[in-house]
Amino acid sequence: MADEPTIWISGRLVEKIRAHGAETYPHECCGALLGRDSGVVAGSDPNKDALNAEREILELLPLVNRRDDSPHNRFSVTADDVRAAEKAAREHGLDVVGWYHSHPDHPARPSQYDRDHAWPWYSYIIVSVQKGAPQDMTSWRLTDNREGFSPEGIEIRHRAAV
Ligand SMILES: [Zn+2]
Which of 17, 43, 117, 136 is most buried (most C-beta within 10 Å)? Predict the structure, then answer.
């Protein structure tokens, strides 16, 4: 699993995602991940560097789950949300690099719905919230053929974000 992509996130943001999931329980929370992909390591194979690119999450934009039909197991990101997230990212000099949401009383694994609604390239962080208490957190990226998700490692950075 040496080529498993890794995302870096500060402990402060991990706590914010977990708190958001607890706050909206038993409904799903959702939000945008703002950050950047880190630079290429000099001198090595450029294709390999792309595989090993690290992604840093430096800010969050909590969003309102607009699904009122089934908010306990669905979330939706609207075009307005994407615009708001991109605007917030620009203000921080960052990009929208992914989305997070919670799974109330379900494991932190993507559902079929998640797969059907995911976009390529973005990281998808999922936090499991069991009986109101946040548990596991995982991150996923759609495979190139869009048929599934592959896991990403999450590295928690304990120093302050840049
Ligand atoms: Zn989900």
Answer: 17
Q: Ligand 1 centre from 103 Cα, in Å?
A: 6
- CB within 8 Å of 108: residues ≥ 6 apart: 126, 127, 128, 135, 136, 137, 138
Q: Give the predicted TM-score (pTM) of the model.
A: 0.86
Task: Sketch the domain layout of the chain as residue ranges.
Answer: 6-157
Instruction: Quote the DSSP letter at residue 160.
Output: P
What is the tens place of the pLDDT at every residue in 29-84? 999 999 999 765 544 555 554 455 689 999 999 998 777 677 676 777 888 999 99
CATH architecture type of domain 6-157: 3-Layer(aba) Sandwich (3.40)
Span from the CA of 88 to the centroid of ligand 1 (angstroms) = 23
pLDDT at 76: 76
Helix (H, G, I), strand (E, B) or coil at 154: strand
The sign of the dihedral angle between the CA atoms of 15, 18, 22, 23 is positive
- pLDDT tens by residue, 106-147: 999 999 989 988 999 999 999 999 999 999 999 999 988 888
Identify the residue whose tokens are 């949300």: 81
